[in-house]
Amino acid sequence: MAEPRSTAKGTAAEAVALISNAARARTNGPSAPLRERLIEVGLRGCGLLSIFTTASIILVLAIETFAFFREVTLAQFLFDTQWTPLFVDKHFGIWPLVSGTVLTTGIAILVALPFGLLAAIYLSEFAGQGVRRLLKPALEMLAGIPTIVYGYFALVFMTPILQAVIPGLAGFNSLSAGMIMGIMVIPMISSLAEDALYAVPNSVREGAYALGATRLSTIFRVVVPAAVSGIAASVILAVSRAIGETMIVAIAAGQQPRLTLDPRVPVETMTAYIVQVSMGDTPTGTLEYRSIFVVGATLFVMTFTMNFVSQRLTRRYRSAV
After folding, report:
1. pTM for the structure as a whole
2. Nearest to 241 by CA among 293, 299, 195
3. In angstroms, rounded to a whole number, what is the distance separating the alpha carbons of residues 246 and 269?
4. What span, in angstroms and rounded, lies between the C-alpha atoms of 185 and 248?
5. 212-248 per-position pLDDT tens digit
6. What is the C-alpha to C-alpha distance for residues 72 and 31, in angstroms, rounded to an integer?
7. 286-315 burial, b for 16+ CB within 10 Å, e for fewer?
8. CB atoms within 10 A of CB 254
9. CB of 268 within 8 A of CB of 97?
């Protein structure tokens, strides 16, 4: 019986050797190095293009921002409480635009965080695989709706409903704009938070069950804290998305820069001001024209900081898992 076994081993070894030689011949053929070099050059070109685009944007913002601050002092920019570059009496305090941006973003997160997190918990902990495969793409479809549709929905549908229950609510206000913007960013929070919750090992849940914890206690006291870094990263990315939103706030929030935290009155965000000045009525090279670049630079610093914090939290979450 030893000889047939030896013959079988030899035949299998010869088959493996033939397959390996054929694969090596295909990989090391005359066209393989050229194909690999072309792929490598293409990938390097895509990376360099993205770096060049980012560097060009930063360069343009820096040049125009420095030109702006040659005529406006940093003290006027940081300590003035009015923003009226297009008026005869010009003021360049950035805080009215910042307050409008922070107000609408805060309302959006107050709407998106509970709904997005609860949707993520349901998809991760309660929904079956079939339901999860169906509901998650359906929820993410909200992110595919054009933002201008959200803006007009906030203006013609949400605002009249809120005016019926909230006295003194203006036709343009940050409340309806922030609420609709929160609905828009729900898919971002729910999708990323669900991925973080789903990645928590089952051994963590089983350990909690072994100690006598109920299902809800396991979810809210064990699973959610274990995925807190990923959940925080999803919230920060949603905040960055809300800060950079343009059409909803431009249509529904109004274009009146004012330093206020009252959600019932019209406000103007940084993105809405950029849209207002970029309509083509402002001459190129003027101080009013350069003001959109200093607002854009401020917006860039805010979103860059949020994205940096999000990446750090994501890395921490991955290393913990």
Report:
1. 0.80
2. 299
3. 8
4. 12
5. 888 889 989 999 988 888 888 888 888 988 888 888 9
6. 61
7. eeebbbbbbbbbbbbebeeebeebbeebbe
8. 22
9. yes
